[in-house]
Amino acid sequence: MPMGPLVCSETVSRVSSVLNRDAKQFGKKHLFDGSEETCWNSDQGSSQWVTLEFPQTVKVSQIQLQFQGGFASQLCTLEGCRKGDELVKIAEFYPEDIHALQIFRTEEATLDKLKITFENSTDFFGRVVVYRLGVLGEKL
Q: Could you say which residues form the signal peptide (predicted)?
């Protein structure tokens, strides 16, 4: 089966924080809206994260991220699990501090829940700004 986008309207997403709690302007919905003009902007903190709970079991093979330069994560940790299980570390990757879309291939992992933790932000205050988050793989 060909690789395709896994985030859909039934995917439940959560984020660690939103800048000034202004979800209308900087909320999680902007991670997936496909607009070049909107973004998720975290508040300050040492590590920020996004969790995704998929409506069905998926096999993840690629993560796509587009940060705002100066507000990127230098280290991302990927964790996942099946329903009812504890999160297990799947991979680490090291994005560049640039605005371009970056693609990270992962060892295929079968899961229902995915957590991406953004560690070591290039911003002095620990904020992360993500214009686009894509999760690609297969729906099982």
A: none
Asked whether 92 and 77 are in contact (CB, 8 A), the reply is: yes
CATH of domain 4-139: 2.60.120.260
| Strand-pair partners of 41 | 129
pLDDT of residue 3: 86
**What's the DSSP call for residue 124?**
T
Q: Which pTM does this prediction carry?
A: 0.93
Q: How far is CA 85 from the centre of its chain?
A: 20
Question: Does residue 1 surpass a pLDDT of 90?
Answer: no
Is-contact 40 27, C-beta < 8 A? yes
Under the banding of pLDDT at 50, 70 and 90, the label for residue 100 is: very high
Q: Which two tokens stand for residue 74?
A: 């230098």
